[in-house]
């Protein structure tokens, strides 16, 4: 690309006054140097970066004390140094506050970020006129040395971190579905050692790590893709699993390696925690083992998350104060333990075929749980939540029919419980969803959407959302006249969760083209989604944005989305890191370019172009593509004004050139088109001046 495209005045705008600039530099350097409790990961890169910044602090302080005029090149250098140090601060803060496990998985990427920052620091020092600055000889020598080191710095990746990561990946692979029979104490000892080496040493550390991983998964949901989110969820499961096994109770402590040498058993046997003796039961199927004790379950029960555990083990877990599912880490919305009769029947059959004695579960832990949990009596008559396996389809059918009968004739309390049980039953398995619909649940659930009782309404709309995942049910839900009631819940539901699940239901239903038309014709549907875009939680905003995108695929709905005021909100959400829906917002904006009203409304924003330029550098691959789509559309419509704003921004041309060379296929094509368009604008401007 011709260098002439870079605007000659790019250096002159955006500088702070010299005094303010130096003060800001000293302040941010002190912030970096005073950071405490630095992480174990990236220790060398972080300490080296802080040492370099300390040296620069001395330079800035001497320049400030000299109180003399500065040459223009030094102002440019100081501005670049401020940018580098600020990004270094954010990077160190991310390493300190972010997930340690995710940091371990991203070791090369994070190390490369430190390397890039040091190289940029060296390039900034290239234009520092040290000979013209009033600084002492010692400071001059230190800065010259720092400059030389930065120029010849090499990428440093800690080999120990790579080894830890590889060990962890191997252990995670050995505990996968295909290799569950190989898991045992030795794996957990190794995992515990690895986690301890990166700073996870106690229950509190594990809980904080789970929260950080969940936050990272939410953050990556809009930019990282399904594979990245899946990898993070695997790490969450690993931490939750290790925490439940390692810290569940003193009696479940992992034995030392010396003890294991004495206790080691053949690979086809398992260790019985409950009796502290070895069992000779061979080849226990993995689905019959309790995820907590790894033993053959005696009394399998289902918790609110849908996972099955042995009653004694999960009772001890809950009695010790935990309120989350040990396997998934999901918070339990109730503490009821519902018998898994289908699995128990299969286990009994297996025990008989393999001559395995069946031991009855001890009632003590069950009664302890009932005494400790005051809410248990609320679920005394709860319908058994049966996992669907081939042998249990008839049982599920009977359960669904029974629950639908309660929806039709029961009291509000019974309706609430029945809707909740259907919500759980519809959560997993297409067979469940089909059977529930065939039992006639949908019309009754639609009627309950008008309930003034918050939990009934919430359970009903969530059950419909779960049922709508099965495509045939989408037609049945629409035929039952559910749209108006779902829109009512979306607009003024009794709880925020109900409103958000209503938005998710609209998204699910709008997967069918005819439903896009029907929903779009409802005058309150799209404004209600825009309202949730403004008022909802981050998850609710994401649901609303995805639903709007689906509806806007149908051209007639684009104008409605624009007139509902979505554009300013979507642009605002591009700057909201907490919302985490950058890619979703960009996708909707790119769609709205397809109508003249949308193009006009988007063109009114004065802050969108700088945001899009930043996203060209830091956005996800999909986000970069949509940013390019928006910039192209704005340049074609806004012409010279938008093109001039792009040319005046010093980051735009390098970003476009980078995408034209290394971006995805779509990004390269769009970046080339935008660069050609800017080149023509620049050429026309020069001809007019000439």
From TrEMBL:
Pathway of action: Protein modification; protein ubiquitination
E.C. number: 2.3.2.27
All residue ranges annotated as the U-box domain in the record: 283-357
ARM repeat residues: 440-482
SMART domains, alphabetized: ARM, Ubox
Cross-referenced Gene3D superfamilies: Adaptor protein Cbl, N-terminal domain, Leucine-rich Repeat Variant, Zinc/RING finger domain, C3HC4 (zinc finger)
Molecular-function GO terms, alphabetical: ubiquitin protein ligase activity
Classification via Pfam families: ARM_PUB, PUB10_N, U-box
CDD domains reported for this sequence: RING-Ubox_PUB
Protein name per the record: RING-type E3 ubiquitin transferase
Protein species of origin: Prunus yedoensis var. nudiflora
């Amino acid at each position: 690309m011709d260098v002439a495209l870079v605007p000659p005045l790019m250096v002159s705008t955006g500088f702070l006054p010299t005094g303010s600039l130096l003060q800001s530099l000293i302040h941010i350097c002190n912030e970096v140097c005073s950071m405490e409790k630095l992480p174990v990961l990236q220790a060398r890169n972080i300490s080296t970066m802080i040492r370099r910044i300390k040296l620069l602090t001395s330079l800035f302080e001497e320049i400030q004390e000299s109180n003399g005029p500065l040459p223009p090149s030094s102002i440019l250098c100081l501005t670049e140094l401020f940018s580098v140090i600020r990004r270094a601060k954010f990077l160190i803060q991310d390493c300190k506050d972010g997930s340690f496990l995710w940091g371990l998985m991203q070791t090369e990427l994070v190390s490369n970020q430190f390397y890039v920052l040091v190289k940029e620091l060296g390039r900034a020092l290239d234009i520092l006129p040290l000979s013209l600055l009033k600084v002492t000889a010692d400071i001059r020598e230190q800065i010259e040395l720092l400059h030389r080191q930065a120029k010849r710095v090499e990428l440093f990746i800690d080999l120990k971190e790579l080894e830890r990561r590889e060990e962890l990946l191997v252990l995670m692979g050995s505990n996968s579905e295909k290799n569950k029979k190989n898991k045992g104490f030795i794996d957990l000892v190794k995992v515990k050692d690895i986690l301890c080496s990166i700073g996870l040493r106690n229950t509190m550390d594990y809980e904080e790590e789970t929260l950080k991983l969940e936050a990272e998964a939410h953050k990556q949901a809009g930019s990282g893709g399904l594979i990245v989110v899946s990898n993070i969820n695997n790490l969450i499961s690993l931490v939750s699993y290790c925490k439940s096994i390692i810290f569940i109770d003193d009696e479940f402590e992992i034995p030392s390696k010396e003890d294991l040498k004495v206790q080691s058993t053949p690979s086809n046997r398992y260790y019985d925690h409950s009796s502290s003796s070895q069992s000779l039961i061979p080849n226990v199927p993995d689905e019959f083992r309790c995820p907590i004790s790894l033993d053959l379950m005696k009394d399998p029960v289902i918790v609110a998350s849908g996972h099955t555990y042995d009653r004694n083990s999960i009772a001890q877990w809950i009695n010790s104060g935990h309120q989350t599912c040990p396997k998934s880490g999901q918070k339990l919305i109730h503490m009821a333990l519902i018998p898994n009769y289908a699995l128990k029947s299969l286990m009994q059959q297996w025990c008989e075929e393999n001559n395995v004695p069946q031991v009855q579960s001890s009632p003590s832990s069950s009664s302890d749980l009932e005494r400790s949990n005051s809410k248990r009596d609320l679920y005394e008559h709860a319908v058994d939540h049966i996992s669907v396996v081939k042998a249990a389809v008839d049982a599920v059918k009977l359960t669904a029919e029974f629950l639908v009968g309660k929806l039709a004739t029961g009291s509000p309390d019974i309706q609430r419980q029945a809707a909740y049980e259907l919500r759980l039953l519809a959560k997993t398995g297409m067979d469940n969803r089909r059977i529930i619909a065939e039992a006639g649940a949908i019309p009754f659930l639609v009627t309950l959407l008008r309930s003034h009782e918050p939990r009934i309404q919430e359970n009903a709309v969530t059950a419909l959302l779960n049922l709508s995942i099965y495509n045939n049910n989408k037609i049945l839900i629409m035929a039952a006249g559910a749209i108006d009631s779902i829109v009512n819940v979306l607009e003024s539901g009794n709880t925020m969760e109900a409103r958000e699940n209503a938005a998710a239901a609209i998204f699910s239903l709008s997967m069918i083209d005819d439903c896009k038309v029907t929903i779009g014709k409802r005058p309150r549907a799209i404004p209600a989604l825009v309202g949730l875009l403004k008022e909802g939680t981050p998850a609710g905003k994401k649901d609303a944005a995805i639903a709007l995108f689906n509806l806007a695929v149908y051209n007639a709905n684009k104008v409605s989305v624009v007139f509902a005021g979505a554009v300013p909100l979507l642009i605002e959400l591009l700057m909201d890191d907490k919302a985490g829906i950058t890619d979703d917002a960009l996708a909707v904006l790119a769609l709205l370019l397809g109508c003249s009203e949308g193009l006009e409304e988007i063109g009114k924003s004065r802050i969108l172009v700088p945001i899009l330029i930043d996203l060209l550098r830091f956005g996800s691959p999909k986000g970069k593509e949509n940013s390019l789509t928006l910039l192209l559309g704005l340049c074609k419509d806004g012409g010279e004004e938008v093109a001039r704003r792009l040319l005046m921004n010093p980051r735009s041309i390098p970003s476009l050139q980078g995408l034209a060379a290394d971006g995805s296929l779509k990004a390269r094509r769009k970046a080339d088109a935008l660069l050609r368009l800017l080149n023509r604008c620049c050429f026309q401007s020069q001809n007019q001046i000439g």
